[in-house]
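Entry for the shared binder. Reason: the reviewer on the internal report wants the predicted structure included alongside the sequence.
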Amino acid sequence: MHEALAIVIGLSGGLALFLYGVGKMSDSLQAVAGDRVRVWLSRFTTHPLAGVATGALITALIQSSSLTTVLVVGFVSAGLMTLRQAAGVIMGANLGTTLTIHIAAFKVTEAAWLLIGVGFLLTAIFRRDLYRQLGSVTLGLGLLFLALNQMTVATNPLRDEPMFANWMRQIEFPPLGILVGAVFTATVQSSSATSGLVIALVDDQAMRLPAAIAVVLGANLGTCVTALMASWGRQPIARQAALIHILFNVFGVLLWVLVLPQLTWLVAHLSNNVARQVALAHTLFNGISTLLLIGWIGPLTKLAQRLAPDADQRVVPDRVPRYLDDSLVGAASVALDHARLELGHIGALVAANLDLAKPRLLHGNWQTLEELAARDNDIDELYQRSVQYLRMISRGTLSARETVRLEDSVLAAGYLENISDIICEQLAELGRTRIRHNIVISAETTRLLEELIDFVRDRLRDAVQAVREADGPLAREVVGSKGLFGEIQWRVTTHLRRRLLSSTEDRLARFQLEFDIVHQLQRIFYFTRRLARLIVAESEPPED
């Protein structure tokens, strides 16, 4: 009993350390890759082969096929990627994830402490973000090798245990081995963890090659659970992307389950090291499956669409976020892109409110003004959800550039919320003042005020578009429109001052109301330019 407890504790500790090491490598590599992941996914996935290559490269880079698949589901859900593009990336992700098992197969355990030491020194000495992140990658790699050594030591007694040896022989039966690999991977949410444990067992001679290959093959099925969970509650197209991942892996396993003995024979002749034989088998069945199924992306996509058909979409309330996706928080760059899209959603609603405010402010009745005031509740809800999402992102590992983007996103959300308050509170209250004092705004004054409102609304829409698309030139146009705003404002205020000289008894109250409207529009324009300035600063090249 004491020995069994020691094995469980040692194995659990080694597995936890392995997951921590892989996670540290993944977080740091994502920080180093930064915006490249987003750019590659958006630019280099138009052709299936390009999608496969991109998926393999990104997964090898960030060390997580589950994360790549979750990113793809998020991109498809946000309308940034088609289902056919997603299929190629998902196939490539399975191929890219085999890099982890190859790293583990080298078993450079004697260098573990050296890597840990070098990684720690890089993170402690250097201030430049790139070197610190590379230090974290090195440290994570050292922890990975240390964890493998710990799991090997912990499982050493199992090699001579008859009951365990008998169980290992049973899972050499492919369906059972595949089931064990799938269940374990779905439980720990990491195919890399399954690969690491298998490498430790085969290296310690506690597991034979046929069982190891079957378990690793099952890990491909288990990793589908992450994508399925990421698509839960999403639009049908997101569930279709997750189903493509499942279908690809299921068909891949079915292709190989009948020829596992031949695959075992092949890898046994390609290498004398049993750990590397397992890694080779993993790469071969993922690579060959991709080559065989890449021509079937069309049928796979249609099958996924049949299994998760597009139902009639319910009308989604404005206060419900469109793009915030908690499953993407681990990939800061992509999560920040989704936050940017959500800011675009908020901005579009705010600009629409300003459009609605124009007739209600100048001519509307009490009820329409109350309806305008109530629309601020939706913006407040979206603002709070967006800031909460950005806080979640901030808890992860961010590069210096991602930190600036996050801070700018918080500021942008605040500016939009301020604009919404001015429209739905201040302008609505000025409309109520007009009704209370029975003020009628003249046709000429209405024309000038509408011209000013339209100019501010158009600049607001341009600023929101610049935020959503990271459009530096458009943002510069908004910032540079101060002179045009001043000209229109001068015409309006000059007209108001001349009208003040008239002998009408209510002229002073009317002038005050109209001047306050101009002042509130000036405040909206101020926050609009501040919003655009964030994009101008972001589009400028970083200083050395």
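Summary line for the report: Residues 2-307 form one domain.
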